[in-house]
Design brief:
By secondary structure, this protein is mainly α. Among the domains are: about 10-95, DNA polymerase, domain 1 (Orthogonal Bundle); about 130-275, Intergrase catalytic core (hpI Integrase, Chain A, Orthogonal Bundle), CATH 1.10.443. It has 13 helices and four strands. The protein has a four-stranded mixed sheet. A hairpin with a 4-residue loop joins β2 and β3 (about 200). It is elongated and about 80 Å long.
């Protein structure tokens, strides 16, 4: 594509002036409008079309060129919005100046950008750890707990083990009590059934669900329960996961601890609690292929929310194919 024109059409400059003076848009927004309208003018020059004679077909063709050049859906949508706004302004300007003499008129009968939409945005896939990375993280924190046997290490091992074992949201994890409580003063948001190896949590929309907890995670939790019982101020808090002062852990504390633990485990990515949930869902789906069961364990109201993990599963299979299949290897030689 040719360089963007340095001189804009007088009507484009007039529109930008009104955006600045009347609507008082920020310099950053005005710069974006100028860039998008410059590209419109450049497209018109390339196709030898007058700006005031641009048709709907032209706009569709130019949006397609943007897409072919790798422009994101968001960028294309922003550009089309700027073009649409300018052509709307032109038609309104004509209506206001019908009774006046002089001045440029667009003589537009319709906005050529109407009904032109940007390509649908691709839904970004959730970031998940590989099975090897997840196991490296969990094994690291469990090993540290076994070696140090201090409050923080044992608690972190139980916390990370439970996150990966049951796919809980951070808010659900921190709402868990040691035992269920229901009285006039308060009702537990979540609790552990130590005998049944299940955790009950309060999810989105006030819906409760029970999720199984695997034997390794239950072992980590039982070790933590024993340590927790020895904390003097622990009896004053019903929370399962507490600090040394007996306070329920905050989201920031868990996020910071998980980030530190992941670095110590040598993981090359920023690990956050929701990534553990994504990893749980992806890995269970890879093994079981039971989308409905994963939906229930995650607490998704719609299975459409769970289906995104099938894309992660496909990525896993594609990578395995590339590594293992003889023809895939031959194609890279």
């Amino acid at each position: 594509m040719k360089p963007l024109p340095t001189e804009l059409h007088p009507l484009v400059e007039g529109y930008l002036h009104e955006l600045h003076v009347l609507r008082q848009l920020s310099p950053h927004t005005l710069k974006a409008y100028r860039m998008d309208l410059s590209e419109l003018q450049n497209f018109a020059q390339e196709d030898s079309v007058e700006l005031l004679r641009v048709s709907n077909a032209h706009v569709r063709r130019w949006a397609g060129r943007w897409h072919a050049k790798g422009k994101s859906s968001r960028t294309i949508a922003r550009g089309l919005s700027a073009w649409r706004g300018w052509y709307d302004w032109l038609t309104e300007k004509d209506a206001r100046r019908d009774a006046q003499e002089g001045g440029a008129r667009a003589n537009l009968t319709a906005n050529p950008v109407d009904d032109v939409k940007a390509p649908k945005r691709l839904k970004s896939l959730p970031k998940a750890l590989s099975v090897e990375q997840a196991l490296a993280l969990v094994n690291q924190v469990v090993r540290e707990a076994e070696e140090k046997k201090d409050l923080e290490s044992v608690r972190d091992a139980a916390l990370v083990d439970l996150l990966y074992s049951s796919g809980l949201r951070l808010s659900e994890l921190l709402g868990i009590d040691l035992m269920p409580s229901k009285d006039r003063q308060r009702e537990s948001a979540g609790w552990l059934d130590w005998d049944a190896a299940e955790v009950t949590v309060l999810g989105k929309g006030g819906k409760r669900r029970s999720v199984p907890v695997g034997p390794p995670a239950m072992k980590s939790l039982q070790t933590w329960r024993a340590i927790r019982a020895g904390i003097d101020c622990a009896q004053q808090s019903p929370a399962l996961f507490i600090s040394a002062t007996g306070a329920r852990l905050s989201p920031r504390t868990v996020q910071a601890r998980l980030r530190t633990l992941a670095l110590r485990a040598g993981l090359p990515t920023h690990v956050h609690p929701h990534m553990m949930r994504h990893s749980f869902a992806s890995h269970v789906l890879q093994s079981s292929q039971d989308l409905r069961a994963v939906q229930e364990m995650l607490g998704h109201a719609s299975i459409a929310s769970t289906q995104i993990y099938t894309s992660l599963d496909f990525q896993h299979l594609a990578q395995a194919y590339d590594k293992a299949h003889p023809r895939a290897k031959a194609g890279k030689d």
